[in-house]
Design goal:
It is built from three helices and nine strands; from the N terminus they run E-E-H-E-E-E-E-H-H-E-E-E. It has a three-stranded mixed beta sheet with strand order 5-1-9. A three-stranded antiparallel beta sheet has the order 2-4-3, covered by helices on one side. It has a three-stranded antiparallel beta sheet with strand order 6-8-7. By secondary structure, it is α+β, with helices and mostly antiparallel strands. Helices cover 20% and strands 25% of the residues. The chain has a single domain, classed as Beta Complex (Beta-clip-like). Pfam families: SET (PF00856). It comes from Skeletonema marinoi. This is SET domain-containing protein. InterPro entries: SET_dom (IPR001214), SET_dom_sf (IPR046341).
């Protein structure tokens, strides 16, 4: 799944902070940070205490692909156990939770992207997710499975 600009822009894309829980640490050497530099973005605190945001360091042309939303691919059953609490955790879920906590990565479920067919991209772990998790986005995808971001 890709993010594409729908107008020329030099933009800042802030992700809202939906909970009062402490936000995960985003290490400088994480994949999230490294992929942001490659794509012309920086991850920084967003104004107004809204959490972290992705801020463009280059002018973005209309129609440009900004980046790819990546992360761990989870099944609905894994999401139900790990985030929604509608299924009992198994030993793999407990191991996953322990790993996230030890690495100071979040377990809020704020960065789940429903791909359909009971598959989700979990963009919360900065070690395996791209910077795109920090972008605000449209509620619906276009015909190519892309999120369109308005120019600012």
């Amino acid at each position: 799944m890709h993010l594409r600009a729908i107008g020329a822009a030099f933009c800042s894309l802030g992700a809202p902070d939906a909970s009062d829980a402490p936000r995960p640490i985003i290490p400088f050497n994480s994949f999230a940070h490294q992929s942001s530099f490659r794509d012309g973005f920086e991850i920084q605190p967003a104004p107004g205490g809204k959490g972290m945001g992705a801020f463009s360091t280059v002018i973005i042309a209309k129609g440009a692909t900004l980046g790819e939303y990546t992360g761990e691919v989870l099944t609905r059953k894994e999401v139900e156990a790990r985030y929604w609490g509608t299924r009992k955790e198994n030993k793999h879920d407990r191991k996953w939770r322990k790993s996230r906590c030890q690495r100071k990565q979040g377990i809020s479920g704020d960065y789940l992207f429903d791909m359909g067919n009971d598959l989700f991209i979990d963009g919360e772990d900065a070690d395996v997710s791209s910077w795109c998790r920090f972008a605000n986005h449209a509620d619906e995808l276009n015909d190519e499975g892309e999120m369109m971001l308005p120019a600012m």
